[in-house]
Amino acid sequence: MRLITLRDALREAMTEEMRRDPRVFLMGEEVAEYNGAYKVSKGMLAEFGSQRVIDTPITELGFAGIGVGAAMNGLRPIIEFMTWNFSILAWDQIINSAAKVRSMSGGQFGCPIVFRGPSGVAGQLGAQHSQSFESWLANTPGIKVISTATPYDAKGLLKSAIRDENPIMFMESEVEYGVEGDVPEEEYLIPIGKADVKRQGTDVTLVTFNKMVKVALSAAKTLAEEGIEAEVIDLRTIRPMDYDTLIESVKKTNRMVVVEESWPFASVATEITYQIQRRAFDYMDAPVIRVMGADTSVSYAPNLVSAFLPNPTRIIKAVKEVMYLKK
Amino acid sequence: MAKKKTTTLPYSREQYLSWYESMLLQRRFEEQAGTQFGKGIRGFFHVYIGQEAVSAGICSATRLTDPIITAYRDHGLALARGMSANECMAELFGKATGCSKGKGGSMHFFSKEHYFFGGHGIVGAQIPMGAGIAFAEKYKGTDNLCICMFGDGAARQGALYETFNMAMLWKLPVIFICENNQYAMGTSVERTSNVTDLAKIGLAFEMPSESVDGMNPESVHEAVSRAAEHCRAGKGPVFLEIETYRYRGHSVSDPGLYRTKEEVAAYRQKDPLNAIKNKIVEAAWLTEAEIETLDDRIMQTIKDSIHFAEESPFPDDTELYHDTYAEADYPFLME
Predict the structure, then answer these.
(1) Same domain for A206 and A103
(2) Same domain membership, residue A176 and residue A41
């Protein structure tokens, strides 16, 4: 093992796959000569040239559509959004074209494409640069949604995503790009649709994804000091979701708290809560509780950013609620 | 056999007969399909009648291996590309034998075999997709081009301006064809922009652009041939505004109150199908009797296709989830 950053892990995934398959190319704003807005694609232009690492004008709808057309015609595009906030301009191509062309054509045309970029709150960036869209996108059949922020998971999942035959939405984290983690030298893949138990525990199941995994692990550490052993599950893939791992966990813990940094209404947590009450009702000793981003736009002021986000204190409070503990 | 006669027509007898047959097939197909609307055919149904010279001229000027993508008014183009009346009619009926296995319907004809990249239902969405298809041809190093079609309504979508910009920047081998049938649903070209000369749109990107008479296949064929030569030479995209007219409403539910009967009648006077027929007869390439035989044969093909569609099965209920994802074992949420 060696320690590398999230951005290096993502770049290794893209670079290895581009060496392996000449149909793979990278396109997006500032990905080539600028070396990536967050330096994820640093050095790739030098290795692969301007035919395969392509700067675009600021036209998300246009270059997303070019990616979809190229994927229908035999290539395997990686389309970088500088952030997922900007992807909304391209959602017509994601929802109406990429997600549906296989179905509409009776299986004749596929769309093997990866849309990737950072997602979520990244400090004091204001309302329009602080959003997460996992639940919005995961609502749509025909696409898969991955959201991960650890170098090991990100590399293995991005490589799988690039080889997948379906359109993949791949969410990363701006504030985690520079954070290091263990990544093996040798090649590996992580299957899409499999959650990962990041911490074993017996008393309560904490379900989360992307950079909230760290927040949940921090809460679990504090809880352990109080004798409460939390199991922390990193979903990694939002669609298709690994319900089996969640159900196996609550069969053991009988309690669940879902932690998600986005808005509460029709969230990923909402879906998990439904599935748990439907499939594991008899195992539950308490209702599922969720710890969410606030039901409002993200503000600029630092105290309001903090108040928006889940934190260990809120998670610990929720755990104690499902365990019917005072304090 | 018709006797030989000297003619001043610019193309061969075979070319004119091919155009006539293609246009006649398109016309009769939609006329007959229209009689099935509300019976075997339901949903949206956008008719191409009046615009057949455009598809005939495009297909004669390009190769079958040149990918083609269009909007929801796609029946005529599919037939002109060589897709069978049977598979097209069956698709309108929602049958498993349809060109999209009954999953697409009128707006979503597809055929990989015919490099027909679909029938798309969101106005203008196929414009960047068409550029992407062309991007792939260039990337793979072929000399194919993409024919990317849309209407005058789509010419006002932002996607067009984004795509024209990148297509020129990267010199993509794509012929953008705006079939200007004068109306975006019920809104005339004059009511959608200060710029009513649509060919001018390309000039902002320094894209070679021209207006073409779309009421005869000869002028369409000539313009598309020139554009194809430009694309295949690696010189980048071309924009053609092909002026045409749809005789029928935007869709079956359109009473056409936004235009006059006289306007429609004036265009019918210039009907491309009649014009080609007259040229063939005047050149003595076919007699009236031979034309009638040809018409009967086409009509029989269409009637057979209706029979084929009626007799074909609907997709099996188990098809509901198939083709949503590439893999057969995707874990759908089934309650």
Answers:
(1) no
(2) yes
Which pair of tokens denotes residue B112? Answer: 């990989």
- Largest alpha-carbon pair distance within chain B? 72
Q: Is B81 exposed, middle or buried (0-12, 13-18, 19+ CB in 10 A)?
A: buried
The domain of A201 spans: 196-322
Predicted TM-score (pTM) of the model is: 0.96
Bridge pairing between strands B146-151 and B68-70? parallel
Write down the residue that tokens 């539910």 correspond to.
B253
Which listed CATH number (3.30.1490.20, 2.40.160.60, 3.40.50.1240, 3.40.50.970) goes with B13-308? Answer: 3.40.50.970
Tokens of A50: 């301007």
pLDDT score recorded for residue B6: 62
Give Rg (Cα) of chain A. Answer: 20
Confidence of residue B2 (pLDDT cuts 50, 70, 90): very low
- Among A148, A183, A218, which residue terminates a domain? A183
Residues A162 and A212 in one domain: no
Cis-peptide into B208, omega within 30 deg: no
Q: Which residues in A have their CB inside 8 Å of a CB on B? A: 25, 51, 56-57, 59, 61-75, 92-93, 96-97, 101-110, 112, 141-142, 144, 164-166, 193, 240
Based on the fold, state whether residues A64 and A175 are members of the same structural domain: yes
* Inter-chain touch A96–B121, beta carbons under 8 Å: yes
In a domain, A189, yes or no: no
Which residues, numbered 245 to 274 in chain B, qualify as contacts with chain A under a Cβ-Cβ cut-off of 8 Å? Answer: none
Domain check: are A160 and A200 in the same one? no
pLDDT per residue as tens digits for the range B275-322: 999 999 999 999 999 999 999 999 999 999 999 999 999 999 999 999
Q: What is the ipTM of this complex?
A: 0.96
Judge whether residue B3 has pLDDT over 80.
no
pLDDT digits (tens, 9 = 90+) for A64-101: 999 999 999 999 999 999 999 999 999 999 999 999 99
Contact (CB, 8 A) for A149 and A117: no
A99 and A176 fall within a common domain: yes
Write down the mean pLDDT value for chain A.
97
**Who contacts B196 (Cβ-Cβ below 8 Å, separation ≥6)?**
B189, B190
Query: From CA B316, how far away is CA B100, in angstroms rounded?
Result: 14
Query: Contact B140/A63, CB-based, under 8 Å?
Result: no
The contacts of residue B252 (CB under 8 Å, 6+ apart) are B34, B37, B44, B45, B47
Which tokens belong to A264?
């509460």
Chain A residues closer than 8 Å to B95 by CB? none
Q: Are residues A179 and A211 in the same domain?
A: no
A265 vs A56, A165, A268, B221, B334, CA distance in Å?
35, 31, 9, 55, 22
Residue B1: pLDDT band (50, 70, 90) is: very low
Q: Are residues A6 and A58 in the same domain?
A: yes
Tokens 């080539």 sit at which residue? A32
Q: Which amino acid, one-letter code, is at B155?
A: A
How far apart are the C-alpha atoms of B178 and B110, rounded to whole Å? 20
Does B103 contact A at CB distance below 8 Å?
yes
Per-domain boundaries in chain B: 13-308
At which of A183, A211, A229 does a domain end? A183
Work out how many domains chain A is built from and give that number. Answer: 2
